[in-house]
Design a protein that fits this description.
By secondary structure, this protein is an alpha/beta fold. 39% of the residues lie in helices and 20% in strands. It is built from 16 helices and 22 strands. The structure holds nicotinamide-adenine-dinucleotide.
């Protein structure tokens, strides 16, 4: 076992304490950097799921926490942020070895988690109800009340950040949360549970259940749960929605993406190329936000491709804990093989390699930064979410064609426009059917995005995380009408 891990809890956290799991089986975690065993984690089974739901329901229905002044819950969230900060290096090292992240990216993720708890610590006393004018004899106002018991399911690509994006607004709102991390990456969520307990989250208001699809399905269909917030693939999101429908559960979905960056000929090519590397190859491309479709005005295709390949060549693959490493492995051997198959299919369909595309020898699950050119809308690399370090180049000849290509996707998560003509940039941004658009770049996501809503159109999801908008999911609105006569 990795030397970092013996002190960590590796069993479910149910309503305030870690419990020896019964019947959920064991997940053998593998270090993606080396392909060697990392640790074993006890998964939640039906007993732990039932206990978590029962405790959460009882806590929400009987305890004061949902009714406290928001600043009092905010104080607990501030302590959670401080608790994460105190263990910043431990969190980052866990993410590095469990999720295959270079330590620099893992540290940014931890900073993002601190920021999100700090943001929601101060948010709840700034959102309140409305008064609605109904005439002199009536007083009408709305109250925001916590939704209740919420289930939260997250994937393996940003384990700590994904959990924090959901837990912080849920706890701030007064909900009782049951978090299910992905079975491949449960360690940081279990450490986060410990931090939350130490910070004063009352018993029952947080459970963390490592587990797979069986645990997720139980949470989605249980009628005692009021809402489910899911991040993951579109196909599983659809199943979660179907399972939740019988109990008319509120559903929020953050799903896949096949995002486009539109590069016009007057753009700053160096800046656009550097951003394309960060977005397309950051986290080894395992990001719903990866802008993996580079749509480039034909006259700029060659210079942009050269700048993009040169920037990609500066990525460094090395040791997990080396601060200079910038490209890590993929999460598993099977995922790496699936990425490689899609690249082969893209080439069979006519794409050519600008760089990358050859699976390296060795034990870790590495795949090189890969750029494909000559990728038209019929090519699988244009339409399929590859979730690996693979980007494609597609030329366009007019603004209208650029917009049509960008919108030619079942997804609508985000996109970017690179263009010095601000009128054109804003026209294109408005025409893109995506939940987020960046014009001429995006500052480091972990620094700013916590303040702004995050989510997608079309099959990229329903609802928004982050910003004050995330609180809409975790709150009910009650309308009160008073007869003043
Ligand atoms: P996945 O859908 O396979 O799994 C996501 C989570 O759902 C995991 O915790 C998994 O255990 C659980 N799950 C699996 N089957 C389930 C079922 N039948 N019922 C309930 N839960 C179930 O996705 P993944 O492969 O872990 O993650 C990659 C996907 O996540 C990509 O499509 C990516 O775009 C998406 N993603 C989206 C966002 C976003 O914010 N839009 C962020 C990160 C990842």
């Amino acid at each position: 076992m990795n030397a970092l891990l013996p002190a960590l809890h590796r069993e479910p956290f149910v309503g305030g304490r870690f419990v020896p799991a019964m019947g959920g089986g064991v997940e053998a975690l593998v270090d993606p950097w080396t392909g060697t065993p990392l640790a074993e984690v006890a998964l939640a089974g039906p007993v732990e799921v039932e206990a978590a739901i029962r405790t959460a329901r009882r806590a929400f229905d009987a305890c004061d926490w949902p009714h406290l002044p928001p600043v009092d819950r905010g104080a607990v969230l501030h302590r959670i942020a401080a608790g994460i900060k105190a263990r910043q290096d431990q969190f980052a090292q866990i993410e590095a070895v469990n999720a295959g992240k270079p330590i620099s990216g893992a540290l940014r993720e931890v900073e993002g988690a601190i920021r999100v708890f700090t943001y929601y610590a101060g948010a709840m006393d700034k959102v309140f109800g409305d008064t609605i004018p109904l005439g002199k004899d009536l007083l009408d106002f709305t109250l925001r009340e916590p939704l209740g018991v919420v289930a939260q399911i997250v994937p393996w690509n940003f384990p700590l950040l994904g959990a924090s994006w959901k837990l912080a607004p849920a706890l701030a709102s007064g909900c009782a949360a049951i978090l299910k991390p992905a079975p491949l990456t449960p360690l940081s969520a279990l450490l986060l549970a410990e931090v939350c307990r130490e910070a004063g989250v009352p018993d029952g208001f947080l459970s963390v259940l490592p587990g797979g699809a069986d645990v997720g399905r139980r949470l989605a269909e249980d009628p005692r749960i009021d809402g489910i917030s899911f991040t993951g693939s579109t196909i599983v999101g659809a199943e979660v929605m179907r399972l939740a429908s019988a109990s008319i559960k509120r559903v929020a979905l953050e799903l896949g993406g096949k995002n486009a960056a539109l590069v016009f000929a007057d753009a700053d090519m160096e800046k656009a190329a550097a951003s394309a590397v960060g977005s397309g190859f950051g986290n080894a491309g395992q990001s719903c936000s990866a802008r993996s479709r580079l749509l480039v005005e034909r006259s700029a295709l060659e210079p942009f491709a050269r700048a993009f390949a040169a920037a990609a060549a500066r990525l460094k693959t090395g040791m997990a804990l080396d601060p200079a490493t910038s490209l890590g492995p993929l999460i598993s051997a099977s995922h790496r093989d699936a990425v490689d198959r899609t690249v082969a299919q893209a080439r069979e369909a006519g794409a050519t390699l600008v760089t990358g595309g050859a699976m390296p020898e060795g034990d870790g699950f590495f795949y090189p930064a890969t750029i494909l050119s000559g990728v038209g809308p019929d090519n699988p690399a244009f339409s399929r979410e590859i979730f690996g370090p693979v980007c494609s180049l597609t030329p366009f000849d007019s603004e209208a064609e650029a917009i049509a290509l960008a919108n030619d996707s079942e997804y609508g998560l985000n996109g970017s426009v690179w263009c010095r003509d601000i009128g054109r940039a804003l026209r294109v941004a408005r025409a893109m059917r995506t939940g987020m658009v960046a014009v001429n770049g995006l500052p480091s996501a972990s620094k700013t995005s916590v303040f702004a809503p995050f989510g997608g159109y079309k099959r990229s999801g329903i609802g928004r995380e982050l910003g004050l908008q995330a609180l809409d999911f975790y709150c009910e609105i009650k309308n009160v009408t008073v007869d003043l006569t």
